[in-house]
Amino acid sequence: MNAEDSGTTVLIHDPTLRDGQHAVRHQLSAAALRGYAEAADAAGIPVVEVGHGNGLGASSLQVGRAAVGDDLMLSTVREALRHSKMGVFLLPGWGTSDDLRKALAHGADIVRIGVHCTETSLAERHLGFLRDAGAEAHCVLMMSHMATPAELADHAARAVGYGARAVGIMDSSGHFLPHDVGERIGAIVAAVGTGVPVIFHGHDNLGMAVANSVAAAEAGATIIDGCARGFGAGAGNTQLEVLVPVLERMGFATGIDLYGLLDAAEFAERELMPAPPVTGSLSIVSGLAGVFSGFKHQVLEEAGRAGVDPRDVFFELGRRQAIAGQEDLIVDVVAELAARTGETAA
Amino acid sequence: MNAEDSGTTVLIHDPTLRDGQHAVRHQLSAAALRGYAEAADAAGIPVVEVGHGNGLGASSLQVGRAAVGDDLMLSTVREALRHSKMGVFLLPGWGTSDDLRKALAHGADIVRIGVHCTETSLAERHLGFLRDAGAEAHCVLMMSHMATPAELADHAARAVGYGARAVGIMDSSGHFLPHDVGERIGAIVAAVGTGVPVIFHGHDNLGMAVANSVAAAEAGATIIDGCARGFGAGAGNTQLEVLVPVLERMGFATGIDLYGLLDAAEFAERELMPAPPVTGSLSIVSGLAGVFSGFKHQVLEEAGRAGVDPRDVFFELGRRQAIAGQEDLIVDVVAELAARTGETAA
């Protein structure tokens, strides 16, 4: 696709106030939510997504209680937005249909359902509910490096069949290089047809979040995610205020005001985060290994106790295709690596 | 070039201890230099460059006095390196032939001469001196976005004629996108022939430093620069410990040990820098405008005094093709923008 000829519009979807929550253990205050939402609205960012990092209904002892409950989060951001749409996120199992009803009652414009890339059927009931409610439902396939382009295309088409009006992929562990993204987005665009917008959401573990997002747009994705200063866990998400002017320079239209966007990012750096994301060693290793970076704390703890290199643990978890929810594997892998080390030393 | 078929070797050149100095006003201690050089050597990084940020002989009141003089810097790093080569950098005008003699006496293996991209003739005398001394002389064309691919190819060929054994470009203001880099490196490779290694040095203002470096390698560059954690002024340089595994994944060989490299980066984050680089608003704007980010402090000061938006100043400096040494232009531009604002308000 030649953006300069077609003047293709890319719709920017900003999950700073949802995915960014992971970097601060879901502790964003109502004042911080309001301030950023106002700044994003003033900049003309089309969609502002808000919530607990794991989405609607996920605030819990297990993954962390949010400082602000779903009701107050949604009403605060709703009030702050004059032009931007409000987005919410739901992981089936964490959130329920009741959470969806509540979000719609609060005026959520776009509801994203996230599923593991080969488990689209888990989204069927929620997507059907949203379709019947007349709501704008989107579906994102997470950890998408764990499926082939053909599998992703198949699952994307299924999601559309269930009622998703847009569908796409998250590079949850920041594993992709640009040609990987182009290939996968191309396959999905071909499978769902031109009437269904395709989504890309990147992470920066291998320094490729902006380049991957550009590759996605060139392959036909028209909804691209980015967070202010890349706010997110580990290496962070695609840095929004870098992505937007790069897309514009390449001929894509976003409708966003550059100075307003830079102002919003400065607000975010000052008021939302202790410091912008840094790409540290374990973020790089988890990106290379294709492993969920949320394993980091538990890997460090278990590996430290057993005297095993946490980087070896990540690479081994990658070989075993570990996914979120399989934290027990960490214990097994550490024990096995510790035994191997003992053999080598003996 | 298909790296996976050819197993192309990329020689990594690490200017953490020279270009990184800009981020800490040239205040790296001898202990910090020694520690990082030892870690880089242990990781198998082929070339470790050291010096004042502006190179040999540049320590001065005007651009900042280094905490450690050239003699102690060079002897400290020389002692720390067992396998890696020691590189030095010289900007004609800042450094002299005496500085080159001193560096060679200290055992510098590679001497880089940096010139503005269309001023290669300024390097003629130094490159000739180094050729006659039998030293390994390289030449880099700075602010290379200000010249066309054909001009860069012409100047690269001239540098080879003067005695440079390798030649290449620096994306000094972080302005390039990957296709820009591929086009320019391709033109230079064609102009200098296969016997002369071609160099690329990136900056991350537009989030493209790693992607640009990969594009350079794919276009035939075989010497690529990167700094630990991207250590450097503003948005920083290409993040070395991300670049290396990405190049390896794409089939290029670097000979560097990944864990050793990650350890060196952790040492650098802990001992060299107050914090890793962040891509802030003015870094993004200077990258978009193609302006030397070293103007930042003076732009902020002059713009603040006159009540002008510093981002407007950067974009106007970009239109006027301002380069380092033309700081007087900042005052002119601020005065003109202030006058325009006055007219609008009146």
Automatic annotation (TrEMBL), chains A, B:
Q: What class of enzyme is it?
A: lyase
Binding positions (Mn(2+)): 19, 201, 203
Keywords attached to this Swiss-Prot or TrEMBL record, sorted alphabetically, are: Aromatic hydrocarbons catabolism, Lyase, Manganese, Metal-binding
Question: Gene3D superfamilies of this UniProt entry?
Answer: 1.10.8.60, Aldolase class I
Q: Where does substrate bind?
A: 18-19, 172, 201
Which InterPro entries does the record match to this protein?
A: 2-IPM_HCS-like, 4OH_2_O-val_aldolase, Aldolase_TIM, DmpG_comm, DRE_TIM_HOA, PYR_CT
Which residues of this protein are catalytic? 22 (proton acceptor)
Q: What Enzyme Commission number(s) appear in the record?
A: 4.1.3.39
- Family matches, as PROSITE patterns: PYR_CT (PS50991)
Q: Where is this site: Transition state stabilizer?
A: 18
Q: What is the catalytic activity of this protein?
A: (S)-4-hydroxy-2-oxopentanoate = acetaldehyde + pyruvate; (S)-4-hydroxy-2-oxohexanoate = propanal + pyruvate
One matching Pfam family: HMGL-like
Please report the stretch or stretches of sequence annotated as the Pyruvate carboxyltransferase domain.
10-262
The entry's family comment says: Belongs to the 4-hydroxy-2-oxovalerate aldolase family.
Q: What is this protein called?
A: 4-hydroxy-2-oxovalerate aldolase
Species in which this protein is naturally found: Catenulispora subtropica
Its organism's taxonomic lineage begins at: Bacteria, Bacillati, Actinomycetota, Actinomycetes, Catenulisporales
**Gene name of this polypeptide:** dmpG
